[in-house]
Amino acid sequence: MTERVLPAYAEEGRLFDVADLGAVHFIGIGGVGMSGIARIMLELGVTVSGSDAKASKVLDDLRAAGAVVHVGQRAENIGDADTVVVSSAIKVQNPELAAALSSGRRVLPRAQALSAVMRGRKPIAVAGTHGKTSTTSMLVAALLGCGVDASYAVGAELNATGRNAHLGSGEAFAVEADESDGSFLLFAPHIGVVTNIEADHLDNYGDFQSVLSAFDTFVDTIDAAGALVLCADDAHAAGLAERAARRGLRVIDYGQADAAQLRLRDIDVAAEHTTYTLTGEGVPGELEVRVAAAGEHMAMNSAAVLGVCLALDLSLASAAAGLANYGGVERRMQLRGETKAVRVYDDYAHHPTEVRAQLSAARRVVGDGRIVACFQPHLFSRTAEFARQFGEALSLADEVVVMDVYPARESAADFPGVTGESISRYVSAPVRFIANRAEVAPALAAAARAGDVVLTIGAGDVTELGPQVLAELDGLTDE
Predict the structure, then answer these.
(1) Residues 153-181: what's their mean pLDDT?
(2) What number of CA atoms fall less than 13 Å from residue 478's CA on the CB side?
(3) Active site amino acids
(4) What are the extents of the domains in the chain?
(5) What does residue 281 show for φ and ψ, rounded to 5 degrees?
(6) Count of C-beta atoms within a 10 Å radius of residue 142
(7) Which of 102, 189, 203, 277 could staple 123 via S-S, CB 3.0–4.6 A?
(8) CATH code of the domain made up of 120-324
(9) pLDDT (tens digit, 9 = 90+) per residue, 226-265?
(10) pTM greater than 0.90
């Protein structure tokens, strides 16, 4: 299988100017990626419409900004739109997509529409299996510290701005480059970042070799006058350096490896921040870096950002000052509330490596308390592929609840026997598999004690549990 996993209607390799798109309709406009592009197009003066399955604050905000937004999806919603934008989650049976295809409208994948709004600027595309959202949002903070008003499109809302997208006045455009469907190959970035490469999204790619091939192609899409920033500590990411060198690309690598151009030393993870010393070629002496996020992986993400700033010839001291003001993003170790001396956090981690990293960070946050983790697997295919690895990662918690699989685009009928219990049997910590979603919040509240952290983890609707757990805790009688 090759890296091409884009839908058949995608006009692969073609770059559009936003002015050529006419009126644009977004199917699933309430999604975090789609809403960001729609917001930027509105700022550019494009006529925007869209639809989503249910009402939300995001839809209200888009209406206030000038978009025509429908709740529910019907063929007539596309109206007089010249271009229809869809995410990979939209199937051809969707009535709006079916109407657009049958009427000969231009239909673009989300990434191609994003590429259109980036034309004329210098995209900085942050790719990798893990850390894309945090790295891209940190990049925005660092660029701001350097006095650069960058545009950005991130896969979550920045806590500092309450927005996932912004049209800035500068040339730089920081963009989260999603590899899940191969669409990150459409961006033609000035600077490409690869944080790491692991097996994931095999439901689209088929095998890990195809994932590696896609990242090889990503390197080929980078502007020859630009640069590739990669993690020297990740063997597969580091392996891209040779390909980049053959193209004459500038390569900047970072990590704890002695051979890395940007070297991290003395990483110290505290409850609410991480500090380290950065040395190496292009660094003014020894640069002390502090990021308001817990975890060694957050230190690595921030080092990738400093690599980008080095490639842009910006002051690393100013960039580090910007990182010190980093406010985090939604659903990345996000505190949802505290009651009865129990803190409830939520995190988007949905791959074993991410789960392990977040639980390791949570250990610093919890102090002398315990971690009560609730994990909702995302996709049957990912659950089947990584059940043992998920179980081993979750074993870092003190008590675990595993929910049933959030199917997203998949059907349980295609994966007989694959459930959340496929993971729970590999958890060595005290664990319960709870298939009935209504029972999860009460179980988490009952398990938590004063001083504990409850952490909900996953890419599905597990994020809605935090307020329910807090309410359940409030309803418990103190003994």
Answers:
(1) 84
(2) 6
(3) 132-133, 176
(4) 18-109, 120-324, 334-475
(5) -60, 125
(6) 29
(7) 189
(8) 3.40.1190.10
(9) 999 999 999 999 999 988 988 889 999 999 999 999 999 9
(10) no
